[in-house]
TrEMBL record:
Gene3D superfamilies: NAD(P)-binding Rossmann-like Domain, UDP-galactose 4-epimerase, domain 1. PANTHER family: GDP-MANNOSE 4,6 DEHYDRATASE (PTHR43715:SF1), GDP-MANNOSE 4,6-DEHYDRATASE (PTHR43715). Its EC number is 4.2.1.47. Keywords: Lyase, NADP. Residues 5-314 form the NAD(P)-binding domain. This is GDP-mannose 4,6-dehydratase. InterPro entries: GDP_Man_deHydtase, NAD(P)-bd_dom, NAD(P)-bd_dom_sf. Catalyzes the conversion of GDP-D-mannose to GDP-4-dehydro-6-deoxy-D-mannose. It comes from Actinokineospora alba. HAMAP family: GDP_Man_dehydratase. The keyword Lyase applies. GO terms for molecular function: GDP-mannose 4,6-dehydratase activity; NADP+ binding. It catalyses: GDP-alpha-D-mannose = GDP-4-dehydro-alpha-D-rhamnose + H2O.
Amino acid sequence: MRRALITGITGQDGRYLAELLHSQGYEVFGLLKGQNNPRSDMVQAELPFVEFVAADLQDLSSLVAALEQVQPDEVYNLGAISFVALSFKQAELTANVTGLGVLRLLEAIRMVGGSVNNPIRFYQASSSEMFGKVRESPQVETTPFYPRSPYGCAKVFGHDITVNYRDSYGLYACSGILFNHESPRRGIEFVTRKVTNAVARIKLGLQETLVLGDMDPRRDWGFAGDYVKAMWLMLQQDEPDDYVVATGHTHSVRDFVNAAFCHVGLDDWEGFVTQDPRFFRPAEVDLLVGDATKAHEKLGWKPEVDFEQLVAMMVENDLQIEAAKAGLKVP
Ligand code: NDP
Ligand code: GDR
């Protein structure tokens, strides 16, 4: 039985990836940080097959101990401070977890798996945020990076050190440059879930307004369940490599808001939405759209859920949750 260790098991992607690996017959271990992690019960209820291992990306010796205990065939590094807005407020923490955390995990893999013919395969969760202020569209694996946030800068370091460990020590290390991917499991702090949750509550009469920041930025939004398949496929190839994972379609935040309100029949939605400088960022990423041709050709990967299906899935989920909480029927 193959063994996989996932950092970020309590996050959106960690939970979809755990389900995928379990369905492929893996023994799945999830790295859990903190002495009383508030999300552990939720993960254990959703994914009872996951075995937790206590460690933190800020603590090298805990990572070494986790690897010694699990003896994994594959390590997926999804753990990070992943919220771009927070990274402006906690830049040093972001650099430490999202950037240096990658280096610590790679070092731990070298220490546990050996310097030569290391058998552990490694996946790094890189991000389209690394492209930042783009001068080339769509973005491909060779597009130069110009990060626009402490998060983006930390991800560039994580990406570069992954490539460097592959080049230097022959590690089987891959970096997936994933564009935004969403789902009903998306954290409420991210714009898509914030919107679908507010739209559900407004439709149910539980909320009056949705307060947002800049509605002009454009993102290439896909479905997280599709994207974790690409992560797994990357570690099943003969040679390690880096891949862009994206849908190739871009929409503005305003387009997303429009689609979500229209899904519940509130086509005339402008009156429900206000903007607040609190939600604007010191520097913005205006346009992201990826070209995943390499992933299509080499991994045989393609997304299955499109933009409209994604919005509908998320709004329907929030309608169910919010109606149940309030003791209402979904209209
Ligand atoms: P989430 O924010 O949902 O999850 C982040 C995870 O990181 C949580 O499980 C969190 O654990 C964990 N974590 C935070 N700090 C530490 C730490 N010090 N040590 C160990 N684990 C820690 O992110 P997603 O699931 O959306 O994303 C997964 C990865 O992919 C992230 O690295 C993200 O940056 C990257 N990415 C995401 C994209 C997206 O659109 N979703 C696109 C491109 C890249 P806890 O719950 O205990 O805080
Ligand atoms: P992003 O996702 O920064 O692209 O990073 P997020 O959903 O936070 O923002 C997308 C865009 O929406 C604009 N925006 C708002 N964003 C939030 N969160 N809240 C608001 O109220 C709001 N109003 C407008 C933002 O300014 C931005 O332009 C995500 C994360 O998952 C990263 O970890 C990942 O690497 C990238 O996607 C790819």
